Amino acid sequence: MPLQGLCWLVCCRQGFSLLARDHGEKEEEESFELRNQDEHIHTGRGQLEVTLSQPTRTANGTPCLSGVPEEKRSLITQKSKMTMDEDPEVLVKGWLLREVQGGWLRQRRFWFVLTTDSLDYYSGPDRDARRLGTLVLTSLCSVLWPDKHTYKQTGYWSLTVYGRKHCYRLFTKHYNEAVHWACAVQKVIDSKAPVETPTQLLIRDIEENKFNPEVVEHIYEHNPILRYTTSPLYAPLLPFPYGSLHHTYMVGKGYTSIREEAVRLFNCLQQLESAREPIPLIQGILQTCLDLRPLRDELYCQLIKQTSVTNSRVLTQTQIQPNPQLRYWQLLTCMSCTFLPSCSILRYLRFHLKRVQSLSVDPEVESYASFIAQALEKTRGRECVPSWEEIQGLMGRQEILCTVHYPGPGCCQIPITSHTTANEVVRKMAERLGLQDSRNTFALFEQNSCWEKAIGGSTIIADVITRFENLSAKDPDSDCQCRLCFKLYCLLDTDNISTDSIEYLFLYEQIHLRWSCVGVTPHARKIIPHRAAIPGFQTEMATKRQNLRTAALNKCHEMVVRGQLPACEDDLLSLAALRLQCLLGDFSTLSPYPPLEQLFPAEVVEARALLAPLIPLAVLHSPGVCWLGRCGDTSGVRNRTRDCGPD
């Protein structure tokens, strides 16, 4: 028992000493300070201003970090006794709370000083205060600004500064103070020169000497970072900002940071060599690049590295039968049909393909290089990762077959590539069915047993197939399987359609769907050829043809109302009148009127109501003005004004 009391007393003394050190300063020291170049001349308090200047070397030979590469400066933590007067120009300084690891206090109070080179923190503001840590600021550093979510949880406004190895998460009770610190740190980061990796420097050297093969081969021979390797990669080939993805919407997908994901990407590439089934791994790599756009250039650089050849490797490659680089070429083929790199990486990739074609002795590698070069001319952004079937076709540099259904039991197998659009499939289907001379328009539809939707003409069909594959994978037991359907989209010419043509079958299908919606189901299509010999069949066919034209007119009117067909206001009014005559017959005050949206575009009514000037009451009773509406209703909106009298 006495031992427990002694331990409790020691812990209390240490805790009170820490609280006194963290909260015993004067009130005026809690405020942050912004200093400029003239602060040592003007002692009075002036306007708060953050000024930035380039780093300067002190005249008395004070040691600095200029001799160390900027990527490694943040690794240096000096804890020797150095006063703040020995540092470069001070921009901002003040008390901040910093999140620390370990200990029973999660946040400790330090004196922070921002200079043009780094963000330092000390044990206190005194001259002999010891520097406890340094975070060197480069162009790759990043700042996470204050957010309300953290304030609601902790009661403090936080800002996070990310370095290469260090991350400072700082807290303050004042929002303006947090914003000033974030602005000042961000300005210092923006003033730094961009950091270039060795890979970028070598790519620039290759670009400058691309017409000198001897120099290019010398660069490849003396720089292993450009050549194939079986060793792991410990850093990205391209510069990426430091920081985490936990504050973005990507946190739910398991991503950590861009730099870590780039290293993981190379590890996945090396697993392709020994993978028995590479397609799932390829889909995972492409999905990562779809989610994290900056990794696309990084993946291209990694694939170029793993598919590069040299003169010495070409000589040894003839003696080895299996080529370990074929998996990388297959992934590069899928990548070139899915995403395009930036302009500088695209030039480097094209140079790489030409160089491989000139040096390689493997005909399959030459075929992959030629296929990729052609694909880069057609590729544009994809919305989905290629499907299993598409990746199989790309690995063999072959087209894939797309099943397209049309009204009736028929379907067609259309060969497509990763760049085929819906308009191209519609054109191929029209040529195959003999509809290329039709005046009506056709389109592709996504269709299942519950709904259908038209596909835009510029949509890539491979993305639609991938979407179907994803839906079937989520619910494999569902009966509502999606399919592509070639159907009539817009009726422009109904008089010149022959009853024996397949276009009449398309039109009949459209009317069948319309009648089914209103509960009237016509006879099956097969009654048309079988009843030709029955007496009175011609009269029945004439009646059906008249009903067909009426339904086609209604269908055309619906397309006009929905805005699928352009029409002037006079034509809209005429169509609305004809539709009313068709639906209601002669005018009657007891007939219920259908909704206005079924007769006339609501957008036109709204535009007319907003733009048309108000008409005086005297004009309402003047001759030459006709109104569409009920008799005696003078409070309605005027739909049309027509001059009925002579000029």
Structure overview:
The protein is α+β, with helices and mostly antiparallel strands and 647 residues long. The chain is built from 21 helices and 13 strands. The strands form 2 sheets. Strands 1, 2, 3, 4, 5, 6, 7 and 8 form an 8-stranded antiparallel sheet that branches. Strands 10-9-13-11-12 form a 5-stranded mixed sheet, sandwiched between helices. A hairpin with a 4-residue loop joins β11 (441-447) and β12 (452-454).
Question: Which features would summarize this protein structure in a list?
Answer:
647 residues, 8-stranded antiparallel beta sheet, flat
In short:
The chain is built from 21 helices and 13 strands. The chain is α+β, with helices and mostly antiparallel strands.
The helix content is: 40-55%
Total strands: the figure is 13
- Report the span from N to C terminus: 117 Å
Radius of gyration from CA coordinates: 37 Å
Please state the overall shape, judged from the principal axes of the Cα atoms: flat
Mean pLDDT: 74
Could you give a short account of the major beta sheet?
Answer: 8 strands, antiparallel
Please identify the structural class as seen in this structure.
alpha+beta
The number of helices is 21
- Runs in which pLDDT lies below 50 for 5 or more consecutive residues are 12-85, 514-538, 614-647
Beta-sheet strand percentage? 5-15%
Topology, element by element:
Blueprint: H1 2-23, E1 33-34, E2 90-99, E3 107-115, E4 118-122, E5 131-136, E6 142-144, H2 148-154, E7 157-162, E8 167-172, H3 175-190, H4 198-208, H5 213-221, H6 258-271, H7 279-291, H8 295-306, H9 311-317, H10 326-336, H11 343-359, H12 363-375, H13 388-395, E9 400-405, E10 411-416, H14 422-433, E11 441-447, E12 452-454, H15 461-474, E13 483-490, H16 502-517, H17 527-530, H18 537-561, H19 569-584, H20 602-611, H21 617-620
Parallel strand pairs: 9-13
Antiparallel strand pairs: 1-2, 2-3, 2-8, 3-4, 4-5, 6-7, 7-8, 9-10, 11-12, 11-13
Helix pairs in contact: 6-8, 8-10, 10-12, 11-12, 16-18, 18-19
